[in-house]
Amino acid sequence: MTDCLFYGGKGGVGKTTCGAATGLALAAAGRDVLVVSTDPAHSLADAYGIELGAEPRAVRPGLEAVEVDPEARAERYERIATALASDLRAAGIRLEDAEVERIFAAGTPAGGDELAALDLLVEYVEDGRWDVVVFDTAPTGHTLRLFDLPEVLGLALETTRSLRGQVRRIADSARRMTMGPLSYLGGRDDGGDELVALRDRIERAHAVITDPDRTAFRVVTIPERLAIAETERLVDRLEAAEVPVRSVVVNRVLEDPDPACSRCRSRTRDHHDRLAEIEGTFPELEVLRLPEVDGEPSGTEELAAIGERLVG
User: Fold this and answer.
1) How many CB atoms sit inside 10 A of residue 197's CB?
2) Which of 118, 39, 134, 110 is nearest to 76 (CA)?
3) What global pTM score does this model have?
4) Of 259, 260, 263, 274, which sees the most CB atoms within 10 A?
5) Are 47 and 301 in contact (CB under 8 A)?
6) φ/ψ bin of 191: left (φ > 0), alpha (ψ from -120 to 50), beta (otherwise)
7) In the sheet that 286-291 helps form, which strands lie side by side, from edge to edge?
8) Domain range spanning residue 130?
9) How many CB atoms lie within 10 A of CB 168?
10) Beta strand residue intervals within 10-55, DSSP E
11) Domain assignment of residue 110, yes or no
12) Pairing status of strand 215-221 against strand 33-37
């Protein structure tokens, strides 16, 4: 079965670097890997130094990457909303398209980005081409909505399906009364199968992301108090959602300071204290350290060294 590895955390801590580097290291170890960016502000292409789009593209042998495009699934969701509108109108409920869209959107408060990410998660995991799918997730708020979405959306879709069934029965009854046997002629491409299929995909996505035998979540942070506090909140929420959190990656740790630089020595001591705080806060999690480097790592050579630390 395909394994899933998620990197998450607050914005700007290096999630994309970790995801990109892990993909390279796993591919170098002989695994077939897909790295997926679910962050609306994609930077995975910059990390690899190549153009990426909504379809997986080869980075090097054994490694592909893709940046999730919410619009890639927009047509599918639109058909579901249109089908619901058709049924409501057939039952005598006159709603404008914009009103129906608002009703449907109320069931997906997380937005299209997270919905598309979950939808594609199932597609990539079930594809069978990759041994591991590495997810570079959006900042903390988006990530929490992503993992909360299966429960919220599953209920909304089931409610919509039930409402739709009731409305269809009313509409069909009215058609039989007015048209008699003619009401059975023809058929409607009503998108009902799309609604059921979407609900099933969301259920399968939830099963994957809560399966400790298939999924691991790594929280990325930096050795600063505010970042550590946000990391603790994220870990608590993920564990409450039964997402298997395995590791904390502490990025930008100052190592081997210049002996002549008093400020560097002071920062090194501070980072040492923050690392001790992280290890004390998360005693059950593996703590991985990445050194501070000049600039944002990019290109396969720079990322490869980081990947060795992350994969081992």
Assistant:
1) 13
2) 118
3) 0.79
4) 274
5) no
6) left
7) 57-60, 63-67, 33-37, 132-139, 3-9, 215-221, 245-253, 286-291
8) 3-70+115-143+211-311
9) 19
10) 33-37
11) no
12) unpaired
Query: Is 255 a member of any domain?
Result: yes
Closest by alpha carbon to 66, among 139, 127, 144?
A: 127
CATH of residue 51: 3.40.50.300
Domain total in the chain: 1
179 domain residue, yes or no: no
103 compared with 21, residue with greater pLDDT: 21
Provide mean pLDDT across the span 60-64.
97
CA nearest 242: which of 269, 198, 212? 212
Measure the CA–CA gap between 244 and 207, rounded to whole angstroms.
Answer: 12
Cβ contacts of 185 within 8 Å, gap of 6 or more:
none
The structure tokens 């992503």 sit at 146
Helical H segments across 180-220, by residue range: 192-209
Q: How many CB atoms lie within 10 A of CB 89?
A: 14
Of 151-155, 169-173, 260-264, which one has max mean pLDDT?
260-264
In single-letter form, the type of residue at position 275 comes to L
